[in-house]
Specification:
This protein has 496 residues and is α+β, with helices and mostly antiparallel strands. It has 4 domains: 87 residues, Transcription Regulator spoIIAA; 66 residues, no CATH class; 178 residues, no CATH class; 98 residues, no CATH class. 26% of the residues lie in helices and 34% in strands. The chain contains 10 helices and 26 strands. The strands form 7 sheets. Strands 6, 7, 21, 22, 23 and 24 form a 6-stranded mixed beta sheet that branches. A 6-stranded antiparallel beta sheet has the order 16-12-13-15-10-17, with no helix packed on it. A 4-stranded parallel beta sheet has the order 1-2-3-4. Helix 2 links the parallel strand 2 and strand 3. The longest helix is centred in the middle third of the chain and has 26 residues. The protein is flat and about 170 Å long. The protein starts with a strand and ends with a strand.
């Protein structure tokens, strides 16, 4: 009989082997297991392959020496052979076919048997009184659940409100770093830089140098070596200074002489000095040489002109500083937070960054312009520190049975005395703090007074146990419901 031989490989699985069986056209299909490779086919897979082969009209056989596979195949009735040649020579065992079970005719007495098998209800269950009682219990259960979870109540309280007001003695200390209930709080500092320009008409008179005085000096050697005199060597007569305009060398030997031209450092008539008044040499050359002017210096001239005097400079600076101070106050007020308390008397100049006069000192001009950049500093108390201090003090003196009203702007503060500086450098003043306070109540206590009671009884309990000024009111939903709910979470307490 023809046999289809299919050699398995290690990558074969149930689906791939099943597909390969489908192509077989012979009455016998032989699966050959590889010797040195493992095929992952379980016993249930072999059962599926056996049924698939049977549906194709073929018989399935195996060639394998693997003990586990042989046992699974024998358990399923699949013939197992040592080799493909043996499988083609010997006869395969015949496949046992299942016998079809014949259906028997339906039992004609089936309806009677079913009626006999039905369980009959107890007689007391069918009694009308029992049925009415069961229905009543069910309805009452539903009504009880409705009574517990459907109605709700709202207790509306109108607590008394009043204003709490106290006067606090405040001390703002630069050494403090926190707010204390005793009234101490940090003294903070703010700095700001402003600049501006001020012009005034010059009222003073002055002298303008027109030319510098000139002359000749004689240098005398005090040593045995020659001495070089560079141009720009400074010689002086008291406070009047001159410089040499040429280079020169004094020959070696004591009392050797050399004459050089000089010119005054500053212009004006002050440079015209008498003869033999220039006798000082500045620098190291004064150790080797002596100097004198045999003739007076001449040529220094000056003119009278309109110049800014010291009084003009003082006046323009005073005007500009007042302007800058006003500007600093305005800028500081805009930079501080709302509620910060600014101590204006502490405003002062921390440093002058620049100060320029035009024209400069000694120059002529009918108008004097001053440009300045100044840093101002001022001390203040922050609104947050003041609010914290007021809250601490007011909470300490809060009346019994009251609490602070809600709201970010609940506390208002107003100084009642002017700040002054004490011996420690701290600023002291008195401040009035005010806020709204309301009656406090316990929601759990209010709920316990009314839960499960009729509306009138509940109202009476509230009137007796709560302050009369609270004016409690009970609102039920639905409005016709006569009893306050028993469950606490169905009762809400609100304050208006």
């Amino acid at each position: 009989m023809k046999t289809q031989i299919i050699t398995l490989e290690s990558h074969d699985d149930l689906i791939s082997v099943r597909d390969r069986l489908s192509w077989a056209k012979t009455p016998r299909i032989l699966l050959v297991w590889p010797k040195y490779e493992k095929v992952t086919l379980r016993q249930v897979d072999l059962k599926v392959l056996q049924r698939h082969a049977s549906s194709l009209g073929a018989q399935l056989g195996l060639v394998t020496r693997t003990r586990g596979v042989r046992e699974d195949a024998e358990a399923l009735g699949i013939p197992v052979f040592e080799s493909a040649g043996q499988a083609q020579k010997v006869a395969w065992p015949k496949v046992k076919r299942r016998k079809l079970m014949r259906r028997s005719a339906p039992d004609k007495n089936l309806r009677a048997k079913r009626e006999q098998a039905q369980v009959r209800e107890e007689a007391w269950r069918a009694h009308p009184v029992t049925r009415v009682l069961a229905l009543s219990i069910g309805v009452l259960s539903v009504l009880a659940l409705v009574a517990l979870f459907i109605p709700r109540a709202q207790i509306v309280l109108k607590p008394v409100t009043k204003t709490q007001s106290i006067v606090i003695s405040v001390s703002a200390n630069p050494s403090a770093d926190a707010v204390f209930i005793t009234g101490s709080l940090p003294l903070r500092e703010k700095r700001i830089i402003v600049d501006g320009t001020q012009k005034v008409i010059v009222t003073g008179e002055g002298i303008i140098p027109q030319s510098k005085a000139q002359g000749v000096v004689e240098f005398r050697n005090l040593t045995q070596q020659s001495v070089t005199i560079p141009a720009g060597t400074v010689v002086s007569a008291d406070a009047i200074r001159f410089i040499t305009t040429d280079d020169g060398v004094v020959n070696a030997g004591v009392d050797k002489k050399l004459e050089l031209p000089i010119e005054a450092v500053e212009g004006g008539g002050a440079g015209n000095v008498e003869g033999e008044t220039i006798n000082v040499i500045e620098g190291r050359l004064g150790l080797s040489l002596s100097v004198t002017n045999l003739e007076p210096t001449t040529g220094g001239r000056e003119l009278s002109s309109v110049q800014a005097s010291d009084a003009d400079r003082t006046r323009v600076k005073k005007l500009l500083m007042q302007t800058l101070e006003d500007q600093a106050r305005e800028n500081l007020s805009s930079e501080l937070n709302p509620g910060d308390l600014l101590f204006e008397k502490t405003l002062n100049v921390s440093q002058t960054l620049s100060e320029e006069y035009d024209p400069p000192a000694g120059a002529a001009g009918t108008q004097l312009t001053l440009t300045m950049q100044v840093e101002f500093s001022v001390q203040y108390a922050s609104a947050s520190d003041l609010t914290e201090l007021a809250s601490l003090a007011m909470n300490a003196s809060l009346p019994s049975g009251f609490r602070a009203a809600d709201g970010a702007d609940a506390v208002t503060m107003q100084p009642v005395t002017n700040p002054y500086v004490d011996g420690d450098g701290a600023l002291r003043w008195n401040m009035r703090a005010e806020r709204e306070i309301v009656q406090a109540f316990d929601s759990a206590q209010v709920t316990q007074l009314v839960q499960g009671l009729g509306k009138k009884k509940a109202q009476s309990n509230l009137d007796e146990n709560l302050p009369s000024a609270t004016l409690p009111e009970i609102q039920l939903s639905p409005s016709w419901w006569p009893v306050v709910p028993l469950l606490p979470f169905r009762i809400s307490v609100v304050a208006q």
